[in-house]
Amino acid sequence: MKLSSYSVENNELCLRTGSGDFVPVSGLLEGGYQRPTYIYNFDDVKARLEHMKQAFKGKCHIHYALKSNDHPVLLKKIAELGVGVDLVSAGELRKALESGFKAKDIVFSGVGKTKAEIKEALQADIAQLNVESPAELKRIEQVASELSVKAKVAFRLNPEVNPVTHPYICTGFRENKFGMDSSFFDELHGILNDSKHLELVGVTAHIGSQLRDLSASIEAVEKSLQTFEKWRSKGFAVKTLDIGGGIGIDYSSLDTTSEYEMIEEYGAEVLKIIEGHDLELLSEPGRIIVGRCGVLVSEVQYIKETPHKNFCIVDTGMHQLMRPSLYQANHQILPLKASETSSKVLYDIVGPICESADVIGHERPFQPLFEGDLLAIMDAGAYGRVMMSDYNSHAKPLEIVVENGKIVS
Ligand code: LLP
After folding, report:
1. Rounded to the nearest whole angstrom, what is the distance from the C-alpha of residue 104 to the centroid of ligand 1?
2. Buried (b) or exposed (e) across 96-114, using 16+ Cβ within 10 A?
3. CATH assignment of 42-290?
4. Fewest CB atoms less than 10 Å from the CB: which of 22, 44, 157, 350?
5. Ligand 1 pocket: which of 52, 68, 212 to mutate (most atoms <8 Å of CB)?
6. pTM to 2 decimal places
7. Which one, of 160, 141, 260, 269, lies nearest residue 205 by Cα?
8. What are 396-406's pLDDT values in tens digits?
9. Please, are residues 164 and 207 in contact by the beta-carbon 8 Å criterion?
């Protein structure tokens, strides 16, 4: 069994360091609890990146999906490990460059790149712009010709597969706004042929996120490879095959064995598919790298018992972790200190936001909770603080990065 980087030891929620030591999470709240606090265990990020590299036998260049967690210290440390980055805006591009990612290791995805963003990406001379429509390709060509440069582009395929995931994070189905299916081929071909400012370097696909069954991803890799070879057969010197991100985590458990196994099987399967093809393999993982590294610690403000429900009102909510409200995501919630009692009470763990959607956990069995108790919302390292909103103007959460059991920022 492979445990997550947090576990309950002697009734205390602990962070597990890379060398296997346990550090109580409560001890990481410097000066005591002040307000909602994200804690990120960098040892776990490092282990995940290393495992992913090994699963692909060192033959896949990882481009960390920056959108999943853009904490500057995490980014700097990830960049130091020599991985690349996948990003979706000029703001993310600047964060990546400031954090030390090299332009040659940057891929830029997203359906809505503005002229200014394209210009910035071309001036930085990044590795590839992942193009999502013919209109975008024309715009890139126009900006590249104004700058007198050659834009390196990869075409994002919509492989028309149907991944099993929440509809809001499915991107590879024909009804989604992302990528281009085979019907775009002739138009793209025409634009490429008419231009001296475009260089087609690759094919990319990203079919969705939080995928716990990777069979649709495998189908997408096969389709991407066919498209890649089709471009090559037309005389284009394509070289990169970018398989996107999407690998999911098991939010219901602290046992990460199935995730590790899934990555190993996926790596082996992808390597088998591309065997004998002359190409550079890229991937864009986000959640699987940082999802498990983070917890969000929150304090119980009130217990409110009604004839119908028990509410545990905490000081964090959908403004700081939107996933439960937006995708009905089931993050585990654990007390920092478990009581000895075996009695359980059902609580709805809710936040302070003026929306009935502000529920972090529905009908969760808990030890009796009291004002001032601290709870950790688990697996909040990906798509947590990055999706924060200013709605209701609460103070922003604190963030702490831990490495080798020590606070580094
Ligand atoms: N590449 C592209 C082009 C993407 O759009 C994404 C994520 C990734 C890679 C990384 O996917 P990952 O490996 O993290 O699944 N907010 C949602 C997830 C949205 C994902 C958006 N795109 C959530 O909290 O579940």
Report:
1. 22
2. bbebebeeebbbbbbbebe
3. 3.20.20.10
4. 22
5. 68
6. 0.97
7. 160
8. 999 999 999 99
9. no
